[in-house]
Structure formats: C-alpha cells, structure tokens
Design brief:
Elements (H helix, E strand, L loop, with lengths): L6 E3 L5 H10 L3 E9 L4 E8 L5 E8 L4 E3 L8 H12 L2 E3 L22 H5 L1
Length: about 120
C-alpha cells in the first residue's frame, strides 16, 4: 500500500523559520515546486531526512505575491525560486542568486501562471 503524503500549511511569514527548523532537525531540501489548478496556485516545499521521511509544506500564492527566499538557509533554493518567479510570476526577496527574470526564456512571460482561457487568445 502506498504511503499518503501530507501537506502542512505554512504562510510566507513562516517559511524561513520553517526551513531553519527543518535544517536544525536534520532535513535537507529536496524540492520546491509551484502547482496551479483553475482555482488556486500553491508552492510546495519538500524536505527529507536520510531515513526517507518527507515533510511537505503548502503555501497558497497568487501571481505577483512576494515571499522571502529560503536560499539563506538552503542555498540551492535560489534555482527553484528563480524558476517559480519566471514561470508563475511569484516574487522572492533576498535570493542568494537572483536572475531577475532571465533564468528561462519563454515565448510568453510567466507562461504557467495563465489560465486556460488566456492561453487560447
């Protein structure tokens, strides 16, 4: 039987301290992703211990929101954060490396933030 994943809610003001706590408890950052449905957009932060124990944190966002970067805690987060900025239109402050919207070159700016109706135009 497959294990069910749980998602802990987190806010933008809590995410840096959450990342610090995960590091302190021996977790590593394994991914940050943004996912979009027709009604919502969420950023999922996933941390893992060496024993394969994963913890997921779900942060609801909108295009244009600004969040603090966790790259000061987990340096590699800057790549995920730049990607989310370029493809979904979510801003991050304090990134260790900020490509300022040039990590990806796409035909449509913030292409994944668009709804199906906007893509048809």
């Amino acid at each position: 039987m497959a294990e069910v994943q749980t998602f802990h809610p987190v806010t933008g003001s809590e995410i840096v301290n959450t990342a610090k706590n995960m590091l302190k408890e021996g977790y590593r950052l394994i991914q940050i992703c943004c996912t979009k449905t027709p009604t919502e957009m969420d950023i999922i932060y996933t941390f893992e211990k060496l024993n394969l124990q994963c913890e997921n944190f779900k942060l609801p966002v909108n295009v244009g929101d600004t969040l603090p970067s966790i790259s000061g805690v987990f340096f590699a987060a800057f790549l995920y954060e730049n990607e989310i900025h370029d493809l979904y239109g979510v801003n991050f402050t304090g990134m260790a490396v900020d490509f300022k919207g040039t990590l990806y070159e796409t035909a449509v700016k913030q292409a994944f933030s668009m709804t199906g109706a906007e893509n048809k135009e």
